[in-house]
TrEMBL record, chains A, B:
UniProt-annotated binding residues for Zn(2+): 45, 47, 97, 100
Reaction(s) the record says it catalyses: hydrogencarbonate + H(+) = CO2 + H2O
InterPro entries given in the database record: Carbonic_anhydrase, Carbonic_anhydrase_sf
Protein name: Carbonic anhydrase
Coiled coil location: none
Protein role: Reversible hydration of carbon dioxide.
Entry keyword set: Lyase, Metal-binding, Zinc
Enzyme class: lyase
Co-factor binding comment: Binds 1 zinc ion per subunit.
GO molecular function term, any single one: zinc ion binding
Cofactor(s) of this protein: Zn(2+)
Similarity-based family: Belongs to the beta-class carbonic anhydrase family.
EC number, as in UniProt: 4.2.1.1
Amino acid sequence: MANIPDPSQNIQDIIRANKEYVRNFPPHDRDLPAAPSRGLLIVTCMDARFHPTSALGLALGSTHIVRNAGGSAEEAVRSIIVSQQALQTDEVLLIKHTDCGMYPLGWDIEQEVLRDVKLLKGHPGVSGDITGWIYDVRTGAIRRII
Amino acid sequence: MANIPDPSQNIQDIIRANKEYVRNFPPHDRDLPAAPSRGLLIVTCMDARFHPTSALGLALGSTHIVRNAGGSAEEAVRSIIVSQQALQTDEVLLIKHTDCGMYPLGWDIEQEVLRDVKLLKGHPGVSGDITGWIYDVRTGAIRRII
């Protein structure tokens, strides 16, 4: 443990929360397969105001979730290909959100969703159903664009 | 709506779950700032068996979460830099997990965590506290490596 410095406040809080989580970990979650049970992958932003699992009702083991600054489809392509080819997912939801710092004021976020969905649909390595959405950080609501 | 095909079963389920989520969306979550309240960013895998927000007790608005196939630090660098420079996060947890399809049987996942933490610590664009962890998909427990 010589290389491990004292835990920060964040780490102390996380360790405490995780102990509680482990205590309540349901037995049927112990043997979930790696392949997502819903055949679903979500690409979205790293934004702190969006918890996809809560907001979209995603059970443990059901869905691959890829997140990066802006919910970039281009950066997610490697992960999508791995997910589809190695773990048989066949549906992609691309979800950007309101008030995203990656898109300057005045940019049309709907256009950015359309652009990224088009990129994925045109990518030779990506297949399956691909839809595009916007999450509203002020209401928690999602809205389908395409 | 002409461009929008009939919703899949996944989409019907997600829309139903999201309606419920919106109904219960707490008023104090409507005006969360974009900057994560805990100054924290987590990099982890897209694996369906890990829900970081539940497993680590992360409140809405508290933490940036970056996810990709394997929890690649290299692929996360762009997002980390955006997070640190534009939204003032100053702590990074890199979390890989047991039974990860990105690491062939026999690979030492601890070594992969150490390698990725070293990559981030040596990156000229990345700063702050950086620690490395493993999440156990069978128990829900996290363990610190460095």
